[in-house]
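Sample intake sheet
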Amino acid sequence: MHFRHIFSALGRHRIAVCLLVLEIAFSCAVVCNALFLIGNRLELMHRSTGVDEAHLIHVGVRSVTPGSADAVMAQTRTDLAALRAIPGVVNVSVVNQVLFGDGVSFSGVSLSDDAKAPGIQVTQYLGNAQLADTLGLKLADGRRFKPDEVISYAQLESGGSSAPVIITKALANHFFPGQSALGKTIHAFGADRVVGVVERLVQPRDYGPAENYDYAMLFPVEMPYSQGRYLIRVRDASQRQTVIQGALRALKADGPLRLISPKYATTLEAARDKYYRNDRAMAWMLVGVCVLLLVVTSVGIVGLTSFWVAQRRRQIGIRRAIGATRGDIRRYFQTENFLIATLGIVLGMVLTYGLNLLLMAHYELGRLPGYYLPVGALALWVIGQLAVLGPALRAAAVPPVVATRSV
C-alpha cells in the first residue's frame, strides 16, 4: 500500500477531510468524557453503605397533637414494643436520620475541647443501644453499646453530655492514623470516649468533601419518635412489604392522633433507588448522546466514502484493469479511513484532555483516567472500519471495463 498516493488523493479533498477529522475529534472528546461521567455516576450509585440494606425498612410518624416530652417518650417505648412483636422483625430502633433520607445531621468533631482546635464535620447517628445491630454494621474493633450507656435526648440537647461513641474505620484512621482508636477521646457533644469501630458507615446524603463521605459516628441516645424514624430490620428480605403493612397497623392501633401513611414507609433499597434517580437519568442521557454522536460520525464516514467511490469509479476501473484485486481496492479505502480516523483521534485526545480540565474546574470532577483514551481510540477505529466497509466493498465490485468508458 502506497501511503503517498493516499495522502495525494486526500489532498484533493482537503475541506471534506478536515471536516471529517474534526467530527471524529469532537466525537472522541465527548465520548471519552461522557463515558468517564457515566462510570463516575455508576460508581457513586453502587457504593457500599456498610449497612444491611436488603433487610432494612424505615417508617416515619408525624405528630398532629404533640404532648409533653415524657408522653412522647412513653409512646415511643409502646411503639417499639409493638413493632418488635411483628413476625419477622429482628431489631427496631428510632434513629435521627436514615440513609438516602431527606436530611443530614452533622457535628463538628476535634481532638480537643479548645474552640480553636482544628476539626471536621462528621455525620452523627443517634439511636438506642441496638442501633448498630439494627443497621447490620460489621464491628472492626471494640464493642457495641451497653444498655446502661444510653442517654436521653434531653441530656444530649442540653449540651456537654459526654457519651460513648462508635466511629467508622475511616474516621478512626483520620484522627488516629496507625494506632487503635479504642479508649481515645473525641470532642463532639463533650469528651466522648471511643468504644467501638465499625468497618463502614456513610453519610445519609452526599455532602461536603468526597473524602468525608465515610466519616460517621453513632451515639447511644433514647430518641423520641417525633425526632426521628423507626428503623426496622427484618429476618427475610422477601417479607419487607408484609412487615411494612404490619408496622403501619401496629402504629395506628395504639397512640394519639398521628399521621401514619404508606408514603412515610419504605425499604432502604427503594430509598436508594429514589435518591439516585437523577444520576441514573443523567447516565442514560449521556449514553444516548454517545450513541447519537457515534451514529452521526458513522453516517458521515459512509456518506463521504460513498461520494469518493462514485467520483473515482474510472480510476478504480483502471487499477482493476492493470491488476489490482478486489482486496487491494477494499484495503485502499479502509487504510484511507484509518489514516483519517487516526488524525481525528490524535486531535480528539487533545480535546479530551482540555474538556476534562474544564469539567474539573467547574464541576469538581476527577482527572480522566488514562485508559479511557486508548479505549475511545479503539472504539472509533472499529466504528470507522465498519462504517467504511460497505462503500469499500462497492468500490471493490467496480469492474475493469469501467476504465474503457469515456469521462
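Comment: Residues 53-268 form one domain. The first helix runs from residue 3 to 11.
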